[in-house]
Amino acid sequence: MGAWLKGARGWALEKIATWQQRQRYRAYLATMGERDLRDIGLCRTDAEREANLPFWKQPAIDEMSRGRTPRI
Description:
This protein is mainly alpha-helical and 72 residues long. Helix content is 65%, strand content 0%.
Protein backbone atom coordinates (compact mmCIF):
# COMPACT_ATOMS: atom_id res chain seq x y z
CA MET A 1 0.00 0.00 0.00
CA GLY A 2 1.44 3.35 -1.01
CA ALA A 3 2.20 6.02 1.55
CA TRP A 4 -0.43 8.33 0.07
CA LEU A 5 -3.06 5.59 0.40
CA LYS A 6 -2.16 5.02 4.06
CA GLY A 7 -2.46 8.76 4.63
CA ALA A 8 -5.83 8.89 2.90
CA ARG A 9 -7.07 5.92 4.93
CA GLY A 10 -5.96 7.59 8.17
CA TRP A 11 -7.63 10.83 7.16
CA ALA A 12 -10.88 9.00 6.33
CA LEU A 13 -10.91 7.12 9.65
CA GLU A 14 -10.26 10.34 11.56
CA LYS A 15 -13.06 12.11 9.68
CA ILE A 16 -15.52 9.29 10.44
CA ALA A 17 -14.58 9.37 14.14
CA THR A 18 -15.10 13.16 14.19
CA TRP A 19 -18.50 12.81 12.55
CA GLN A 20 -19.55 10.13 15.05
CA GLN A 21 -18.42 12.32 17.93
CA ARG A 22 -20.42 15.27 16.60
CA GLN A 23 -23.51 13.12 16.19
CA ARG A 24 -23.29 11.84 19.80
CA TYR A 25 -22.68 15.37 21.11
CA ARG A 26 -25.64 16.77 19.20
CA ALA A 27 -27.95 13.94 20.24
CA TYR A 28 -26.97 14.53 23.86
CA LEU A 29 -27.56 18.28 23.58
CA ALA A 30 -31.08 17.58 22.33
CA THR A 31 -31.87 15.65 25.53
CA MET A 32 -30.41 18.12 28.04
CA GLY A 33 -32.68 20.00 30.40
CA GLU A 34 -32.77 23.76 30.87
CA ARG A 35 -30.66 23.66 34.03
CA ASP A 36 -27.95 21.55 32.41
CA LEU A 37 -27.89 23.84 29.38
CA ARG A 38 -27.54 26.88 31.63
CA ASP A 39 -24.66 25.15 33.44
CA ILE A 40 -22.72 24.94 30.17
CA GLY A 41 -23.72 28.45 29.09
CA LEU A 42 -26.30 27.62 26.43
CA CYS A 43 -29.92 28.44 25.90
CA ARG A 44 -32.47 26.03 24.42
CA THR A 45 -32.36 27.83 21.06
CA ASP A 46 -28.58 27.41 20.76
CA ALA A 47 -28.79 23.74 21.74
CA GLU A 48 -31.56 23.04 19.24
CA ARG A 49 -29.69 24.84 16.48
CA GLU A 50 -26.59 22.77 17.15
CA ALA A 51 -28.53 19.52 17.56
CA ASN A 52 -30.21 19.99 14.19
CA LEU A 53 -26.98 20.46 12.22
CA PRO A 54 -25.97 17.56 9.99
CA PHE A 55 -23.01 15.53 11.28
CA TRP A 56 -20.64 16.83 8.61
CA LYS A 57 -21.15 20.52 9.53
CA GLN A 58 -18.66 22.25 11.79
CA PRO A 59 -20.01 22.92 15.29
CA ALA A 60 -21.77 26.21 15.78
CA ILE A 61 -21.02 26.07 19.50
CA ASP A 62 -17.49 26.87 20.67
CA GLU A 63 -17.21 23.88 23.03
CA MET A 64 -16.22 21.49 20.26
CA SER A 65 -14.53 24.16 18.15
CA ARG A 66 -11.92 24.57 20.88
CA GLY A 67 -11.22 20.86 20.81
CA ARG A 68 -12.93 20.16 24.13
CA THR A 69 -15.10 17.10 24.13
CA PRO A 70 -18.13 17.13 26.43
CA ARG A 71 -18.55 14.08 28.64
CA ILE A 72 -21.44 12.02 27.36
